[in-house]
Amino acid sequence: MTAQNDTQTETVQPSRRDFLRFSALGLAVPLAGAAVAACSPGGKADAGAAKASNDPQTTQPGNAAHDSNHTGGTMGAHPRTPQEVRAAADAMDAHHEAGIKAFPAKTEGKGNQLMQPRMENGVKVYELTAAPMQWETEPGKRVEAFAYNGQVPGPQIRVREGDRVRIVVRNNLEQSTAVHFHGVEVPTDQDGVPFITQPPIKPGETYTYEFTAPNPGSHMYHSHHNSAEQVGKGLLGAFIIEPRQKRAIENVDVDYVMIINDGSHGYTINGKGFPATEPIVAKLGQKVRIRFMNEGMMIHPMHLHGMHFTVIDKDGWPQPQPWKCDTLNVAPGERWDVIVNCNNPGVWAFHCHILPHAEAPSGMFGMVTALIVEK
């Protein structure tokens, strides 16, 4: 599936060195919305532009160095010539276009994959192994990660209210760990907090959690030991408890889990940064349920172009009355469930609206994806 751009213009294709030289003259940053409308999923990016879009300075939380000298206007005593202005604009546009055309870019590894349990005497058994690895967040960008079963986020666990569940955790890290089932109202001895409810799981050890799945809803599991590092590096996942009886509003065509994070891997959606993020794809007229989960340390207002959200649940609990918005603040630890009625065909930008989490002079990055509504 590709987005169409009928207007073709000839642009200068400068090198990264040219781009940086032009940028020093001062550039105005264009808005994100118009750029994403030109998405061409599966296209090939200009190599120099792709390199710029993967600059670590543009993907690390709290680092605004890439913005400081790009406020527009002129620098120094000499005004720019029209040719210099055009060349600078063309340089910026080429880098933005290359990132868009690369979306969705291929990378090694895929997180948040649904995990199938094995059955033992009526108990659903899941095995999780925490271990270090290298994880590719964007094309060519590999980071140190801690992962469950070799994926970031860890495997998606889905059970049904009332199921008996056993989670066997093996620690292959070089530090202790534990697993907390965030939002799940388990007995205290299954809560996963070292020195409060259990001993830490030492390197090389195995620990078993077991409980009956209680309150249904969109929940999470993650490390609760040295968690700023361990969760930031990838020890996190979705833990979804389906209700015994669904509400009518929960009958959807696509059920999508979106885990956002802002640890040492930068601003990510399901373990990847744009252009390696995964688009959500639906057909015209279908209903999509999006389960937002914030495993990071910052608030992220998630914004969809072209269509609104109907908010149905917060932290697994139904809202007193569904309500509508197009930008939804998702704070650390929160889960929000929304429904999107896909009644507007096209490729629609979908991103965090704290703009330094999503776009820089060298193009879009981080918490950006798209909802593609196919006719």
Number of helices: 5
Secondary structural class: mainly beta
Q: Predict the CATH topology of the largest domain.
A: Immunoglobulin-like
What value does the Rg take, in angstroms? 22 Å
**What's the total number of strands?**
22
Percentage of residues assigned to helices:
10-25%
The tally of structural domains comes to 3
Mean pLDDT: 85
Outline the fold blueprint:
Elements: H1 16-23, H2 32-36, H3 47-53, H4 82-102, E1 118-120, E2 123-138, E3 141-148, E4 157-160, E5 164-171, E6 179-182, E7 206-212, E8 217-223, H5 227-232, E9 236-242, E10 254-261, E11 268-269, E12 280-283, E13 287-294, E14 300-304, E15 309-314, E16 317-325, E17 327-330, E18 335-341, E19 346-352, E20 359-360, E21 363-364, E22 368-374
Parallel strand pairs: 2-5, 4-9, 10-13, 12-22
Antiparallel strand pairs: 1-2, 2-3, 5-7, 6-8, 8-9, 10-11, 13-18, 14-17, 14-19, 15-16, 15-18, 19-22, 20-21
Helix pairs in contact: 1-4, 3-4
Outline the structure in words:
- The protein has 375 residues and is mainly beta.
- The protein folds into three domains: 87 residues, no CATH class; 125 residues, Cupredoxins -  blue copper proteins (Immunoglobulin-like, Sandwich); 127 residues, Immunoglobulin-like (Sandwich), CATH 2.60.40.
- It contains five helices and 22 strands.
- The strands form five sheets. Strands 11-10-13-18-15-16 form a six-stranded mixed beta sheet, with no helix packed on it.
- Strand 20 and strand 21 form a beta hairpin.
- Helix 1 packs across helix 4 and helix 3 packs across helix 4.
- The longest helix is centred in the first third of the chain and has 21 residues.
- The termini are close together.
- The N terminus is likely disordered.
